[in-house]
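Course assignment 3, question 2. Fill in each field.
Student: A.L.
Task: Predict the tertiary structure for the chain below.
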Amino acid sequence: MPKTFTAKDVFLVTGSTSGIGKSVVLSLLNQGAKVVAVGRSIEKLSALEFESGGSGILVSEVRDLSNCIGLDKWMLSLSKKHGKLRGLVLSAGIQQIVAFKSSLSVEKSKELFDINYFSSMQLAKGFCDRRANIGEGSSIVFLSSIASIRGSRGLVGYAASKGAINSAVKSLAVEVSPLGIRVNAVLPGFVVTEMTKSWSKIYTEEFIEDLDGTYPLGIGTVENVVQPIIFLLSDSAKWITGIELVVDGGASLC
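Answer field:
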């Protein structure tokens, strides 16, 4: 089966050491690409390097994205170091499940927006510098969530941070289209990842089993989300920009 990408195709992936981001990295490598994996844990990045067995090239960059300042300039420096980028996957993010009335503070909201929204926007800003991307054929994919279009208890702040991404994607897609850059968002439904496992007191086995029954196609896997992301990065999606691609097994229909 022919590879979708070559080692000349450089992609940067945030949140690359777990969940969807990690699977995107491994999939891109298997497709023959060069991947710059960004994470804040040296140990987890080293484990990813050990695990990667694709025909592509993997390089690691350590960065804590909770500090948004200077991320655009850092992105430009990475393109000079590793080559002009063809694609950017913004998968890093955090979730907070807190009651709006009693627990949603300004500090918690700022933490959500700094990581889920502002850091991603600063990285996208750096990517859109002509010196950082390959021009025609470049693609940015933001990881949003169906929480941004479907109401759920305890997710007011999280949903707002993802909704901000949805709105920004549309305007950004128009603004950077003359540069040949496409911008899209993927809105996954519930899939089991390291992040959801960290909320095991809420996302219990019983909860997940009950939730599975409410999804028309059942709860999906990380791989179900990864393949649409790879599609949006590829030339097969060269006439697609500014969309919110819902990948949720039909959950948002109910």
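Instructor remarks: Strands lie at 10-14, 34-39, 57-62, 85-90, 138-143, 181-188, 244-247. The chain has a mean pLDDT of 91.
Grade: pending
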